[in-house]
Specification:
Length: 239
């Protein structure tokens, strides 16, 4: 009897081991396998480097304003006119420069004295060693002086600031204004003027605008032989 029970138990155990998988067991296994497979597909070595390389190339790419420009160059500033003797200034010798500059400054001194006599504002001027100092009660102090190394006349104005003027003859410079009202120029003969080459303005026009001083062209002879020039010897050669 006891042997029969053991035989039945052994048979039951063998039948449980040999029976097929149940529906729940098969469903559980089929659910886990795709998840494991998709995980390894995302981390595939063949896909990951390609995606990273594409992102890196797009991020480091630079473009210019034009579609065909990948590395645009900065704009180049436009060239400006210089203020040296070779940039529109007339080619004059040292002797010619001193003669023209002295004639102009002496003529300017006479014009300033005339303005001071007719004006009650109290404008004063002092000319010494080639330096002309003008004191205006409203504007301030002007300084005008020769600059022989550059063959220029320099101006320091409390209104328009510092400027350097070159001797310019209309036929040799594009910076000269063709519509100038003074035909003879600052010397009264050649038509030359002391011009600020950066903007084409003349020293005479600036002084007239800021100080009301008008220079008479060709007045250098009176200036050299008058109050600011060499003293006359008492002989008058004029008729």
């Amino acid at each position: 009897m006891k042997a029969s029970r053991q035989l039945l138990r052994s048979a039951a155990r063998a039948s449980r081991l040999n029976r097929p998988l149940t529906a729940s067991t098969a469903f559980s296994t089929s659910r886990l396998l795709p998840a494991t497979t998709s995980r390894y597909a995302v981390l595939s070595p063949a896909e990951t480097p390609r995606q990273a390389a594409s992102f890196s190339t797009h991020t480091l790419r630079h473009k210019g304003l034009q579609p065909d420009s990948s590395d645009p160059q900065p704009p180049k500033p436009e060239a400006t006119h210089g203020n040296g003797p070779g940039a529109g200034a007339a080619q004059i010798s040292d002797g010619e420069y001193h003669e023209l500059a002295d004639q102009y400054l002496n003529t300017l001194v006479l014009a300033l004295e005339d303005v001071s006599e007719r004006n009650t504002e109290g404008m004063e001027s002092e000319f010494s060693a080639g330096v002309l100092t003008i004191t205006h009660p409203k504007h301030g102090t002007y300084v005008i002086n020769k600059q022989p190394p550059n063959r220029q006349i320099w101006l320091s104005s409390p209104i328009s600031g510092p400027k350097r003027f070159d001797w310019v003859i209309p036929s040799s410079s594009q910076d000269h204004k063709a519509d100038s009202t003074v035909d003879g120029g600052d010397d009264g003969s050649t038509g030359g003027k002391w011009i600020y080459l950066r903007d084409g303005s003349s020293l005479s026009e600036l002084l007239k605008s800021e100080l009301g001083v008008e220079i008479t062209p060709g007045g250098g002879e009176d200036a050299h032989g008058g109050r600011e020039g060499p003293a006359k010897s008492g002989l008058n050669s004029s008729p």
